[in-house]
Amino acid sequence: MAPESTALTTKVESGSPYQLDQAQTLRASSALLKHIKTLAQQKEASSSTKNLLTTDPTSPDNFPSEVEPIWLVLSAKKFITDKQQLKPRKVLLPHTLNTSPNTSICLITPDPQRQFKDAIAHPSFPPALAKRITRVISVKKLEAKYHSFESKRQLRDSYDIFLADDRIISYLAKILGKTFYKTTPKRPIPVNLQPPKPREKQNAALPSTKPKKEPTDPKSLIAPPLIAKEIERTLSTAQIHLHPSTTTSVKVGLASFMPEQVAANVEAVVAGLMDKLIAWRNVRAVHIKGPNTMALPVWLAEELWTDEGMILEEDEAAEAKVKAAQKGKRDGGALEGPMDGGEEVLVKGTKRKEIDGAPTEETGAESRRKKAKRLVDEEMSKEMKERREKLRQQKAEARAMIEGKGVVKSKGVDGEEPVKNKKKSKKAIEAV
């Protein structure tokens, strides 16, 4: 009998190792859903009262077991992106996360908002979707009406989903602030509300001289059925919020899903990530988890680095430390003490110390700034010396005049004879 494998994940039997194993994904999804249901049953059995102290609606303690989210956590070997992107990426899911017909939607549009309200109220717009869109507001009115933190919190708690035209999605972070963008559940989701662009003629030699149509022109607006199609498509997507880090999380399912549904969404999100955002060789691990559970592995990389040449042996690491110490020595610093290999560590920004009781020489030529400062100090000391000598001479002359004698000039800067200082007698002072 063959021994059982202790590996955390399984790889595909044939083909490239840089792909998900469907059996492993399904196994992890089944185990996670089973664990979430077990935790929910234990929580209900231990406590029958609701926690009234929790005020955050997005807190994991407020999630019922049926709508508890399942997250895909992807870890990379290098940064996925260099800067934070306010516009999230979207990946179409085979099983939508917004299954409730009672979900309230707030649509944020460019100015003017009347054209979008008329499109939603049009007979060709699906009534079921129009019933869910309970608020349409333009970005100008949004900024004018909701400028305080309290009003923004009220707006956030009044609706379940926020949709925004992708032309204004990057401006909403400044308007809505951390009330919406501190967490991801209530961030506006971009939706394309622009009319489809007409195909350009291949034989067009000169640009068109016709005046551009105004936004209020019915021909320049998107048709109501197309708006409904774009909104429904956006509601069936998963949003990927990218940050300058090596980890990103994507919501891929709910606790009420079947294991096959979660596995299908995981495969779709991973495929969307690998197509446009990250390469397979840069992926370190793929996990799935719940809000209060540990992460279960779906895929683990065999190499921890994108380039094996980045890994240094012990000798190479020691040599790199020596080179770093020598570089610091050239920059101007001090030797702190011997390293493991007998080398001396140079600490930048400190004075050079004596090592083993022997005085050390300067580490390099003085900088121009130090030389200029030294010259200024020398000139100032010379000037102060001359002033002190002149002051001593003036005191001697004044003392000589008081005693009734001639002034004897001191030999100072001009090379004259020094003044012979004599103590005044008590009688001379009383006579004066």
UniProtKB/TrEMBL annotation:
Biased composition range(s): Basic and acidic residues: 374-402, 411-420
Coiled coil residues, start to end: none
Residues passing through the membrane, by range: none
Region Disordered: start-end pairs: 186-220, 327-432
Pfam families from the UniProt entry: Ribosomal_L1
Top-rank lineage group of the source organism: Eukaryota
Name of the protein in question: Ribosomal protein L1
Lineage per the UniProt record: Eukaryota, Fungi, Dikarya, Ascomycota, Pezizomycotina
